Amino acid sequence: MIRNASRLAATSVALFMLTSPVFAQTQPSASHMALAREVALTSGMARSFDAMVEPFLDQLQQMNVTRPEIKNDLDQVVTMLRPELDKEKQKMVDNAARAFASRMTEAELKTISDFYKSPAGKKYVETQPGILDDVVRDLATWTQQTAQFVMSRAREEMSKRGHQLQ
């Protein structure tokens, strides 16, 4: 009996907290979400989703290399799947928009949107994939060099303390 009363009390407190305005999350306005979606799209984020989806279709179409008799049917299936994948991609754009809207004000999103619409913002989005390729390439080299530096310096310092590291 006491256990049931405790459960009821705990459930009541939890429900109160969930319905209380202090604990309830406010939903962004339609204009806030529209700006967030615009930022997600104009920032080039949707292009990233395309880059993830296309390999799926490419892999599917590679089946016609090993089974040429299914090429026509496979091409039709890929054509049929594209609109469905676009809907899936739109779900990710919506998720990104919600993430932006939950972390940034409408005014901040407006400023960012204006930037992405500007010539400099358009140039940024256009050049970003190449820049990221360069950064990733440089990061691999830097990571290797930094790892070697850390081990070399650690060996040197440990040697001063009478320890040998392999």
TrEMBL record:
<keyword id="KW-0732">Signal</keyword>
<dbReference type="InterPro" id="IPR018637">
    <property type="entry name" value="DUF2059"/>
</dbReference>
<feature type="domain" description="DUF2059">
    <location>
        <begin position="90"/>
        <end position="147"/>
    </location>
</feature>
<protein>
    <submittedName>
        <fullName>DUF2059 domain-containing protein</fullName>
    </submittedName>
</protein>
<dbReference type="Pfam" id="PF09832">
    <property type="entry name" value="DUF2059"/>
</dbReference>
<feature type="signal peptide">
    <location>
        <begin position="1"/>
        <end position="24"/>
    </location>
</feature>
